[in-house]
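Quick check before the chapter quiz. The format below is the same one you will see on the exam, so make sure you can read both the input and the output lines.
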Amino acid sequence: MKKIRLFYLCTLLCVAIGCNESASKKVDQQKAAKSSPEAPVSTAAMTFDKTVHDFGTIKEGETVQTTFTFTNTGKSDLIIVDARGSCGCTVPNFPKNTPIAPGATGEILVSFDSSNKPNMQQKTVTISANTQSGRETLRIKAMVSPDPVKQKQRDDAAKARQQNSN
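Here is the expected output.
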């Protein structure tokens, strides 16, 4: 029994001595100073001529386009990895995985298909790039005038659903 107590006492003493030495004492201060960055890592930055575009009033079924022009205002090459519209009706065309030097400009062409999209529409394009935030957002909006024939079909279908639910 005394041997077990002595064993636990020695183990406890070793743990206490080992924990007494703080982690900061264990780190080689010279190596740490060399590996830590003295200045923040330079990144690319996107500055747009506009981040929102209003198409105004368009007719249902029209496909409209706008161009968002951007400048790399960062200190390193800008690389756009992906750009996605918030739905299938919004399609961006962008310079994928093409390095854009600091100070250089580029364009993102955004198409919007208003088929079966009556009334006010607001869509987004999310850009994934090597910027500090990693994501940039563009917005488009349009007031889509309903096609009279399609609107009558929608109204008739809604009336039929209403009658079936009663």
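If your answer matched, good. The first helix runs from residue 2 to 20.
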